[in-house]
Design brief:
single chain, alpha+beta, Glutaredoxin, 2 domains
Length: 208
Amino acid sequence: MKNKSYIGISFIILIFGIWSVPKIITKFKKSDLHLIGKVPAFELTDQNNKKISDKDYLGKVYVVEFFFSTCPTICPKMNENMLLLQDEFYGNPKFGIASITINPEHDTSEVLKKHAEELGVKHYNWHMLTGDKTYIFDLAKKGFNMYAGENKNVSGGFEHSGMFALVDKEGNIRCRKDAFENPILYYDGLEEEGVQAIKEDIKKLLEE
């Protein structure tokens, strides 16, 4: 009788174990987002005069943008949309933002701190970063392949991409694919569609 009970219990445990395996596999499965490559290494100074590097973001899903505090054109809209991302993931320690100025000669840590306060930056993993101008331009154009440059003939004196880069917990740049299965590379930081898409994909990466 004892042997029959033991066999019965063992059978139940075995079936339960088999049934549980797919759930465990699903939980740790990578999302369908395309892997572009490693985020370029960087080290800059944030609004609190603290050195921040790409390594400080490891273990976090984060968004990267290039901007400048006196930008009169696309930056206000990018700021508005980045604030939406802050609100969506506020309080989540696994989420972060890296806002890198392309006018570091003006945008010192002190200037960026005031700018952050005026914008309503509250998330402790949102770093507004400054440093050497040549270093930052190389990081934008050669590291991320996102345009940034000076142009005295345009309003504000600088031009830059309005796109957001999405980086996973392991430091990989990731993105979704379009209707033709082509990687979009970066997300439109100016349009509602792009912001909604990056929100959805941040959630996917947070679950990985």
